[in-house]
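Minutes, project check-in
Item: structure for the 398-residue chain
Input as provided by the requester:
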Amino acid sequence: MTSRTQSTFAPPVMEARRWLNGVSFPPDRPLINVSQAAPVDPPPPAMRAAMAEAIEDAATHLYGPVLGLPDLRDTLAAHWSAHYHGTARAEQVAITAGCNQAFAATLTALCAEGDEVILPTPWYFNHKMWLDMSGVTSVALATGPDLIPSAEAARALITSRTRAIALVTPNNPGGVEYPAETLRAFFDLARESGIRLIVDETYRDFDSRPNPPHDLLSIEDWDQTLIQLYSFSKAYRLTGHRVGAVIADITLLAEIEKFLDTVSICPPQLGQRAALWGLENLGQWLTGERAEILDRRAAISDHMPQLTAKGWTLMGVGAYFAYIAHPFADPSDVLAPRLVQDAGVLALPGTMFMPADDPAGGRQFRIAFANVDRAGIAELFARLAALDWPLASTQRTA
């Protein structure tokens, strides 16, 4: 007998951490960890002070509303409306214990056993894991060298069992920012096909574009097709406090509420209060955080030529991620543990983001640079450029 959890793979980040066991790193060559996209710095001091005050409020330690604190729902709806030049109402917002729970709750509300959800590849592995554990088939939508999915290619994958298409932009793992016209094409396809379009915008706050990334919230009755997911973790360094959100129609939120009430009863109260304080007070600070991430993105591009000369390819970069193709003979899942020992770099192989039968994952790595500054990026690229592993035959003949 196979349980639900046995139907999927082990958590990739935890698997990668095991590659560190028994490996030591000298002080002059410390580990460069680019395996996880979670800020390691704590929230800014002013937010921590506000959280300390909230700790003294007795209500912080009690159950709250299943769909989240009303003030947070209202404020997020106002921010969402302003950012997208559209309309979102508080009753269309649910707060969740992190964005992964937002995805899980949404898919549970949408899907039954044997249904299908289309995921562009490379995909975010936790999305694939949840669908596996739910008995829902993940239908892989291959992307080209630019990692941008095609709505027309997705059209050919839609069947009577398809319930949704799930996109992540800026993308995890690829880093690419989906163009507004791409999102509009997927929205039109989903509406025409009677399915839902899920857009996970966990990294929205680090999008490089000065204008709204899409206009979907300005479409009449957008909530009958579109579901947006969000995370406060990356913007406000609240990863350990687990605060995310779903923006969708109220009928779907009523179904999501059943899931949330059963699993977590309510989102963590302290994290919600911190998220609300952040929305109300940290706009300028977040602008600075975005500028720093954009500078790190620029550093990736600045240093990429030394890898390009060695046969590497930059497939995508943006938000917290760079997605790169390597030139070596062995696949990335074999090379990743060796990368720890030979270069002092912990990175996730592309095989963790691709179907097992897709060989493209073996040529790829994800670099998560949220915790690596410009100087660290320079050192990272120097270490990668110094690798002298055997090249793939196509590289040798070139």
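Outcome recorded: The domain at 5-42+285-397 is CATH 3.90.1150.10 (Aspartate Aminotransferase, domain 1).
No further action items on this chain.
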